[in-house]
């Protein structure tokens, strides 16, 4: 599904990714761990097409297409979802407005008929219920006044509505209490655990992996993957730190 070969990328002229290679197959969950400044968020932003994060070498293939040649909206329509460590607030636009337009924009790009207002509300309410989110929050401006846990639940609702093929989740566990962590972990499993989907889960800590067990754990350090293992590697890193991956 996702094939990254010798990817290099820079921010404001500074090279951050320095020859990163990674392959993610359909049906797999991969966790990316590593110290601060290693390039974890940069990897997510480059894959999502965020401006200012400039690929300078290598290749990325997503579902058979050259991802780096696609505009961000085309990547989303093709089935890529990028979850942020700090979801932004969008005053003046309700969740319902935002999500309906996002979903129907993607459907039109794929040649599918847009959902009617009633069809969309049924879908949105079902996803909110599944995440334990008050449906009244669907009417509120996107993330405005939300707690950290509410923002992450809201992001999972967005993911459930959009139904991506590949979810890249950047420190989704950041700022979550125990209950919210469990709810978000269960949401990831419910939405993305399928033979035709995949997850790239970027995290500092092992705790989210108690709920979303990865098939592979990778250590990203100084812009490269330096070690790969199974779920046991995350436990080892938690005990011993990233020095064990050197």
TrEMBL record:
The name this protein goes by in its record: Fe-S cluster assembly ATPase SufC
InterPro entries (alphabetical): ABC_transporter-like_ATP-bd, FeS-cluster_ATPase_SufC, P-loop_NTPase
GO molecular function, one term: ATP hydrolysis activity
Span of domain ABC transporter: 2-246
Keywords: ATP-binding, Nucleotide-binding
The keyword ATP-binding is assigned to this record: yes
Origin superkingdom: Bacteria
PANTHER family: ABC TRANSPORTER I FAMILY MEMBER 6, CHLOROPLASTIC (PTHR43204:SF1)
Organism, scientific name: Sphingomonas gei
Signal peptide start and end residues: none
Keyword ATP-binding: yes
Family: Belongs to the ABC transporter superfamily. Ycf16 family.
């Amino acid at each position: 599904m996702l094939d990254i070969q010798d990817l290099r990328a820079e921010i404001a002229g500074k090279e951050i990714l320095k020859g990163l290679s990674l392959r993610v197959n359909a049906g797999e969950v991969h966790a990316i761990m590593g110290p601060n400044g290693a390039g974890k968020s940069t990897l997510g932003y480059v894959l999502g097409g965020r401006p200012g994060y400039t690929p300078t070498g290598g290749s990325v293939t997503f579902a058979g297409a050259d991802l780096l040649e696609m505009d961000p909206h085309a990547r989303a329509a093709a089935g890529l979802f990028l979850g942020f460590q700090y979801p932004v607030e969008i005053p003046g636009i309700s969740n319902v407005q935002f999500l309906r337009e996002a979903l129907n924009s993607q459907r039109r790009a794929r040649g599918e008929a847009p959902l009617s207002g009633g069809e969309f509300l049924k879908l949105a309410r079902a996803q909110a219920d599944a995440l334990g989110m008050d449906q009244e929050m669907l009417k509120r401006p996107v993330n405005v006044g939300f707690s950290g846990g509410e923002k992450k639940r809201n992001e999972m609702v967005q993911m459930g509505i959009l139904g991506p093929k590949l979810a890249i989740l950047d420190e989704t566990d950041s700022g979550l209490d125990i209950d919210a962590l469990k709810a978000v972990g269960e949401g990831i499993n419910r939405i993305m655990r399928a033979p035709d989907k995949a997850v790239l889960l970027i995290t500092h800590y092992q705790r989210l992996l108690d709920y979303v067990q990865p098939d592979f754990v990778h250590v990203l350090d100084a812009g490269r993957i330096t070690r790969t293992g199974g779920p046991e590697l995350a436990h080892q890193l938690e005990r011993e730190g990233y020095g064990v991956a050197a």
